[in-house]
Amino acid sequence: MTLEWWHLSTAEPLKTLWAQRAKEFMAQNPNVTIKATVLENDAYKAKLTTITQSGKAPDIFATWGGGVLKQQIDAGLVKDISGDVADILPGFTTASLAAYQFDGKTYGLPTDIGMVGFWYNKKLFSKAGISQPPATWAEFLGDVKKLKAAGVTPIALAGKEKWPGHYYWAYLAMRIGGLDALKKAATDKNFNTPDFVAAGQQVKALADLQPFQKGFLGASYSSPDGQSATVSNGKAAMELMGQWAPAVQKDSGKGLGDDLGFFPFPTVDGGKGSGMDVFGGGGGLAVGADAPKEALQFVRFMTEMGNHSKAVEAGGVLPVLKGEENAVKDPNLKQVATMLASATGFQLYLDQAYPPAVGQQVNDSVAELIAGTKTPEQVAQAVTEVAKSEE
User: Fold this and answer.
1) What DSSP line would sit under 87-144, residue for residue?
2) pTM for this model (two decimals)
């Protein structure tokens, strides 16, 4: 029997670790062959959308949960695994499970959880006379100016792949409007509010400083000349990225070693959001509705403490199981894990939290805002129109 497993871990250490897990599972289950399809982020999203729209799903597939998974569940493509995993669910942390549970039922198990924040080059910060990371957005914009004045490119951005840009708008909306503003927008389908427009105005204020590397509009994320490598090779001072950033930096460039630091997204003066609210998500594995029982066994196998903690130790993922924290070796990732543990609120990536068309519109509109072809008001309007048409 062949199990189709789709995932998007194209960088080390996960690329090798996941292949290793599959080998071990096949050794224990000689009747099973696992056929892996591994694609990078954008290609993965596109291929998964195509197959699910045709009414099929792979036996096992990587998911970020949220609104996209919910749509696949509503289409009858994903197995409700609640009964099959009831015995192991208590071992997972609450934050890591949240994106895969709907109406008290479980449709996937997490393999990673994390948050988006700024990964920065300490050496370039001190070159610009910045002694500590900015705590407020006003300080952040000030530091961008200091970096530019010191001849340092402040920020690397993958302008070609639009998802990294949406992090700025989403985080600013969270800091300005609070998590409630994002929850409310999800229900009443209205992004045309002062808080979302203000978030856009601050993204524009940043873009107006021209903080990004040369040619950023054509840059991808993980290629040798992309966002990650630009930071990794010391050619830009920071990037706003998830917990996988250090692994991808090592994979795509030289790596910063001890010069790499992390700080959370700054607060906005007068904003309603807490600086302890976290934006991010993890990754999990879901099982196709028609998959054989072996698919579920494989998902359980992947999330067993002994297997999963090897990926944590290697710096590939963060803890999703209770008691796994001590497996985190990297000091920056330890900081991320600690922040996650004390987070006051959690917001999933907007391109996963909202229905796919809405998430896509957020990504597209924010990219146009950063490129200077859409105004903050037009962004709020465009996202609202798509959200309303999805009802």
Assistant:
1) TTGGGB-HHHHGGGEETTEE--EEEE--B-EEEEEHHHHHHTT--S--SBHHHHHHHH
2) 0.88
